[in-house]
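Re: weekly structure request thread

Next one in the queue (164 aa):
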Amino acid sequence: MLVVLVIFAIAAGLLTLHLLPDDLDRARHEAEATALLLERAADEAERTGRALAWHPDGADSRFEAPDADGKWLALADDPDFGSRALPGELRWGALQFPMPPDAGGVVAQAAQAAGARDPAAGGTRVVFLPGQLVPVFDIRLGAGTAQVLLHGDALGHVRVETAP
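Done, posted below.
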């Protein structure tokens, strides 16, 4: 009887370990949630006529909007676009902005068009402007070798894939 209980306990322990999400599962879950928020932010900018930006920063990310002086301010109290902290060891990588010839401007130009004169706006934010194409971007999310890639296109669609 004791042997059966030991075997059952070991099997239950292994099953529990298998069911716990690993870093790749957590990264994929966070990336998919962020992808939906980014698509929503592009729609929100178009619908309201208000510029919005997404700023990933290590283990955190936040949405921002320019104030009357053009300085980007976090939308900390916004229930939809407030700041988000990543769980565990997950971290955002650097934003990359591939620039196909037909994509229009770059992020810095988009920030200037929004009236934002913050010099840091160039390579640290994805800016959503009403009536404009969204900058094409790539960003990694993960911990160690467990990495996913978020790829945003000029129409505001964001897809998540396992990073090579």
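The first helix runs from residue 2 to 19. The radius of gyration is 20 Å.
Next request, please.
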